[in-house]
Amino acid sequence: MANTGTKWVYLVTGNDDFAVKERAAQLADELCSGSAENSDGYVVVDASGTDNADVCQKVLSDFAGELQTPPFLTERKVVHLKHLTDFSALLSADLEDATAAGTVLKLLLTDSMPGVVALIDGSGFDNKRTFAKKLKTAGHVKFEEYQTVKSTDRDFSVGRFQQIRDFFRREKKDIEPAAVEFLAGAIANDQGTLRNELEKLLMSVGDATMIRRNDCLSIISRSSESMGWMLAGAAVRGDLPGALGELHKLKAQDEAPLRIFASLSNEFQNLGKMRAAMAELGISRVYSGVFDGISPEIRAAHPENPLLKLHPYRAYKLCESAIRWDGPQLARAYSLLLEANVQLVSGAEGYALLTDLMIRLCRRGGGESRSARG
């Protein structure tokens, strides 16, 4: 009796190595009724060295053999091709070839041995290959893909905010929006780092039911990139002590002045973009529920507006910063940044120049306007 009509091939891939391996381990446990490690029907074919052609063929040959061997003393046999380094050898195979890769591919595209389930995880799955498309669309294949989320991706902030909230909701904790925003910006994009940092924060708060921004500040390991983001945010707010404090930390880590300047410049460029986006949506006053009041008609008329692509709280905070700077203030800030850029590339002492730039930026803008106060 074949497994026609049921899922018997489980394929997990993507460039987020941590997420792929974690999901594969979860699936292995689920397929083995709770514990793969303690199951007599769980067979692992280690594929971690398959970037070597000879090793790859040997591994695929072992995998093919296991797929064609029925379960012994168990109702189900789960064969796990674990941590496949490169899918290319498999996806480029010819079904007519007598190679191990051709045999495996033929087995995966047809019916299985009764009671046998295949689980494959790894990287390098090329979605453009013909056999990749066949595997993804086959009715008996369950395909899952996990990609590292980039901060420049369209839905980055929405997805990252939701991941953080979901993590603490599962742990029966509440987290304030300011803490979510801080964590989303301060933690690197890969799932492994995110999970480790959130678990560290969870342990630190103990029995507290609400996680606040201050809880995060002393616990989360911030990257140079996130510290640059914090420095730029402080400058935009006109917070001179905060800006100089972040600059001191970056200097202690020997961060390149040009990279720090790039973070600062990007933040001020975003102020201009956010003001233009606000004008397009007719936003002249900023308050916490401002995006709840935007009509469906306006949203439909401006589908590419950058503010509408963000989580509402993140969009609100960006508008709150943008409205602090009027046109003349932004123009002066851009002049200061242009002047500093010329001096940096001309060989000026980086940290002294950045310190002076922080002072001048914080003095020239960042004060609340009447509109910001409502």
Describe this structure in words.
The chain has helices at 17-31, 53-67, 88-91, 100-108, 130-137, 156-170, 177-186, 191-205, 213-217, 224-237, 240-252, 257-281, 296-301, 312-322, 327-345, 350-364, 370-373; strands at 9-13, 42-46, 77-84, 116-122, 141-145, 174-175, 210-211. The strands form 2 sheets. Strands 2-3-4-1-5 form a 5-stranded parallel β-sheet, with helices on both faces. A two-stranded parallel sheet has the order 6-7. The protein is α/β, with parallel strands linked by helices and 374 residues long. The longest helix is centred in the last third of the chain and has 25 residues, at 257-281.
Summarize the structure.
The chain contains 17 helices and 7 strands. The protein is an alpha/beta fold. Helix 2 links the parallel strand 2 and strand 3.
Tag the structure with descriptive keywords.
374 residues; elongated; Rossmann fold; 17 helices; 9% strand; Helicase, Ruva Protein, domain 3; two-stranded parallel ribbon; disordered C terminus; Zinc Finger, Delta Prime, domain 3; 3 domains; alpha/beta
Structural class: alpha/beta
CATH superfamily of the largest domain: P-loop containing nucleotide triphosphate hydrolases
**Known CATH architecture of the largest domain:** 3-Layer(aba) Sandwich
Number of domains: 3
